[in-house]
Each structure stands twice: as structure tokens, then as C-alpha cells.
Amino acid sequence: MQNQIQNNKLQILGKLSAGLTHEIRNPLSALRLNLDYLSISADEYGDEAREAIRASLEAVERISTMIESVLEFSRKATTERSMHNLNDVITTGVGIMSPAAAMRAVSITCDLNKKLPDSQFNRNKVLQVLINLLTNSIEACDKGGKVKVKSSIDDGWLKIHVQDDGCGIEECNKEKIFSDFYTNKRTGTGLGLSVSRSIIEEQGGTITYKSSPQKGTTFYVSLPIKYNEEKN
Ligand SMILES: Nc1ncnc2c1ncn2[C@@H]1O[C@H](COP(=O)(O)OP(=O)(O)O)[C@@H](O)[C@H]1O
Ligand SMILES: [Mg+2]
Question: Region 110-115: what's the mean pLDDT?
Fold first, then answer.
């Protein structure tokens, strides 16, 4: 019963956040319009005012990108498999998780291989995996912790590494962590890794990890590079 209650809560939360982000969109575009209007006559203001308008527009853009990413993520799961670039998905995932990391004084850095080819996969599902892995890494870190995300290509596979210098995983838990509902957190759901593994396997990939207690953990995701079979 506890699990059902928790799942129901997550569903409600999902709906609430989708509603909330929709509601933020309208006032946000009003803000952008007004700022655009002000910047038209920017020549009449002093440097400080001009800078204030520019910084406000930039902040509006940041919120807007965030809102669009959350909305995209909260859309219903589909079987969509178009051509995507993994680096874009990583950038979106890191963008979504940055505020949570900053709140815990954890830094996230990226080392992305610019030469990754586009590949066919379900963007939203891979984004979900990234958010799960980043969330776990951030939660494993103490203040000042470091999370690194790396992308690379290896012999027909796209690779993602999510590395943290957090608490690590005890040897005795190594098999358990991918099981449904296994968690050692007071407020955990224990679903992040089991869902991530099934998503990655559904996309024809693999997910593994290496960990040293007290030192940190790295998760490795591999996805097969797939080109569009039919050319339109
Ligand atoms: N990066 C990590 N560092 C340390 N422990 C981790 C990490 N990722 C996962 N774990 C362990 O695996 C468990 C299961 O993770 P997950 O399925 O995401 O559930 P939850 O995060 O809700 O606990 C966590 O409770 C934690 O014990
Ligand atoms: Mg988790």
C-alpha cells in the first residue's frame, strides 16, 4: 500500500508541475513583451537601465528554456524514435537539474564530444534516465561535491558517463540497487534506477556502474548508434 500511495503522489506531482509550468508561460511572455518594448527605446535610458533590461531579458529566457524543458519532459510517454543528438539531451537534462544541484552546493560540469553523430532514440525517455542519474549523483554528494557528465563514441555506441564524488555504493547493495523500490533514502522511491534500466534496455542499450564507498560512483550508459532506416 505504501508503494501505491507514493506512486499516486508522484502522479499528482507530475500533473501539478505540468499545470504550474503552463501557468507560468503566460505571465512570462507578458514580461518578455514588456521588456522588448522597453528595449526599443533603450537609447533614451542610461547605461545602468539598459543593462537592467538586458539582464532581465536574459533571465526571462532562462526561465523560459527551463519551462519548455519541464513541459517537454512531462508530456505523455510516446514511442517516438526520431534522430536526436545525445549532447542536446544531456544539455537539457543538466539545465533541468542545475538549480537542484546549486541548492545543495554541488557543481555539474560537462565534457561533451562535439563529434557525436545524430542517432535514433526516444529523446524524452533518455532525458528521463539522465535526470534520474543526475538526481542520484547530486543526492549522493555532500556540499561542494562534483558531478561530471561525459559523452563519447565507441565502436558504434554512444556513451554517457555520469560521475560523482559522493558517498558511493556499498558492496552488499551492488545487486539490489536496480530492483524496484530499493532505496536507502528516507524519502526515496527506489524507482529511478529500475525505470532507467528498463528504458535503456528498451532502446537496445546497457547501463552499468562502478563505485567505491566514500569515494564516488560512475554510471555508464551505452546506446547503439542507429541511423534512419527509411529515408524520407
Ligand atoms: N550515484 C549514486 N551514489 C550512491 N548511491 C547511489 C547512486 N545512485 C543510486 N544509488 C543507490 O541506489 C539506490 C536506488 O536508486 P534509485 O532507484 O534512483 O532510487 P532512490 O533514488 O529513490 O533511492 C539509492 O537509494 C542509493 O542507495
Ligand atoms: Mg533516484
Answer: 97
